[in-house]
Amino acid sequence: MDVDFAQLRTFTAVVDGGSFDNAAAELRITPSAVSQRIKSLEQHVGRVLLRRTRPVVPTPSGEILMRLARQVARLEQDTADELGFTADETNYVTVPLVVNADSMSTWMLRALARMPVRHRALFELHREDEFHSTALLRDGTAMAAVTSVPEPVQGCTSEKLGAMRYHAMASVDFAERWFPDGMTAVELRNAPMLTFDRKDDMQDRFQRRRTRRRIDPPRNYVPGALEFVDAVRLGLGWGMLPDAMLGDDTDLVDLAPDDPFDVPLYWQRWRMDSPVLDALTEVVKRTAQEVLR
């Protein structure tokens, strides 16, 4: 498909900026020139690529083209680096990633800090549930993802990083009040449960595995990894906490010490030759080996 690179760059600027005017300011051209480039691109592809809403968003066909546009931009930058056109030390490249909250809070930032400085990489982190993160790969928002989905998104590769081990934890007082006889189905039905957000079903999956029943207990929603730990510690409910966040916390008790819950994690990235993505993959895999099971 013979697509004009300038049109692809304009398309990306419109999506990222949310409007034709913002794209025009970014590209230093007139809004009418932006409109003409997008119109020509849509005519060439034979599809409507943008919904003219506020903000402008890509159509399903536009999401496919968005992934191509970002990959082309990545290849352009890598080629310029290798040819020495971007030797200026102030010239950085931004790599968008999607990471689940617990990985971001426990090991991912350590991995990013290991990136060789010669790549001049900056990172745009998107936080998303590990079972839903591939959507951002699919629509081109992210170049790589830490995810629990093993099947690679079209145009991506997938490698297993390991498993993050979780434990059903509660404060001492909470455990004594709600689980005096252990985590039975009756207690689980009545005891308040903590959930990260409405996409988070880890606690539900754990209790289904343990009881072979579907249970809908009262629940608190706490959308922050560190805040979630604090909510458990303060007795707002029980919740699944990863090994890396527990340490020697004597304020917490493991409600099911014989029943840990392992969540496999995978590294999905665009299938393309890119020195930046290759280096990022290496530091992510190396750090994951130190932390995950």
Description of the molecule:
The chain is α/β, with parallel strands linked by helices and 293 residues long. Among the domains are: 1-66, Orthogonal Bundle (Arc Repressor Mutant, subunit A); 164-264, Periplasmic binding protein-like II (D-Maltodextrin-Binding Protein, domain 2, 3-Layer(aba) Sandwich). Helix content is 43%, strand content 21%. It contains 11 helices and 11 strands. The protein has helices at 5-17, 20-27, 31-45, 60-83, 101-113, 134-138, 172-178, 185-190, 202-211, 225-233, 275-291; strands at 50-51, 57-58, 93-99, 121-127, 144-147, 156-171, 193-195, 219-221, 239-242, 252-254, 261-270. Strands 3, 4, 5, 6, 9, 10 and 11 form a 7-stranded mixed β-sheet that branches. A two-stranded antiparallel sheet has the order 1-2. α1 crosses α2 (20-27), α1 (5-17) packs across α4 (60-83) and α2 (20-27) crosses α3 (31-45). The longest helix is centred in the N-terminal third of the chain and has 24 residues, at 60-83. The radius of gyration is 23 Å and the shape is elongated. The model has no long low-confidence stretch (mean pLDDT 89).
Q: The CATH topology of the domain at 164-264, please? A: D-Maltodextrin-Binding Protein, domain 2
Question: Strand portion, in percent?
Answer: 15-25%
SS summary, helix count: 11
User: In percent, how helical is the residue content?
Assistant: 40-55%
CATH architecture of the domain at 164-264: 3-Layer(aba) Sandwich
H and E order = HHHEEHEHEHEEHHEHEHEEEH
End-to-end CA span = 43 Å
How large is the radius of gyration? Answer: 23 Å
Task: Count all strands and give the number.
Answer: 11
CATH class designation of the domain at 164-264: Alpha Beta
Helices and strands: which structural class? alpha/beta
The best one-word shape is elongated
Can you say what the CATH homologous superfamily of the domain at 164-264 is? Periplasmic binding protein-like II
Tell me about the largest β-sheet: 7 strands, mixed
* Average pLDDT taken over every residue: 89
Q: Would you identify the regions where 5 or more consecutive residues have pLDDT less than 50?
A: none
